[in-house]
Amino acid sequence: MNKPHLSETMLPVPSIGVGGVLLNSHHQVLLIKRNQAPAKGLWSLPGGRLEPGESLVEACKREFHEETNLEVEVKHIVAVVDRRLEGFHYVIIDYWVTLVDERRCVPVAQSDVAEAKWINLDDLGLYDVVVGLTEIILSSYQPYAKRDLVGLHDVNLTGTDFIAPQKTENTV
Fold first, then answer.
1. What is the mean pLDDT of residues 138-151?
2. Residue 144, by phi and psi: left (phi above 0), alpha (psi -120 to 50) or beta?
3. How distant is the alpha carbon of residue 167 from its chain centre?
């Protein structure tokens, strides 16, 4: 009986990742093309790994700036996904984000990004995106377009506790 090598039996240590869904008034979403594994060559949301000592919100802002040179405000959680691919294991929290300064809206690909650009929602199918991304973007956009409160919100404005908003008569 052959014994597997130690490296074949080791599972990757899960890492926490963050991403930001940013849409503009032209019904476009900001995507980046990854130039490193995992998912090298695929389009994704700006984002990355949580660093020691950082909050999730701080990580989202930092990663967004590092990859696109844009400053964002983190609003609420739109998705949590578990991804295991290419020897990596990520639990990713995707946030709805908005630009801090809407006059500064031209992304500049930086860091581990090959491209960063605004993509029309109707054209998402023309791009090779990471698994599940189209569904996340479109399901995030629907309530945004209707001004509905969905997702998990920072109701105490601490940047640490995200919970479902309480329904009121105006948010049915």
1. 72
2. alpha
3. 26
Catalytic residue among 51, 71, 115, 135: 115
Confidence of residue 96 (pLDDT cuts 50, 70, 90): very high
**Checking DSSP bridges between strand 28-34 and strand 113-120, what pairing results, if any?**
antiparallel
More confident residue, 112 or 66: 66
Percent of the chain with pLDDT over 90: 52
Token pair of 23 as six digits: 């849409």
Element (H, E) at 7: helix 6-9
67 is catalytic: no
Q: Which residues contact 14 (CB under 8 A, 6 or more apart)?
A: 89, 90, 91
* Cα(79)–Cα(151) distance, integer angstroms: 8
The CA distance from 141 to 15, in Å, is 27
151 vs 91, more confident: 91
Place of tokens 């629907």: 142
The length of the chain is 172
The answer to whether 156 touches 140, Cβ cutoff 8 Å, is no
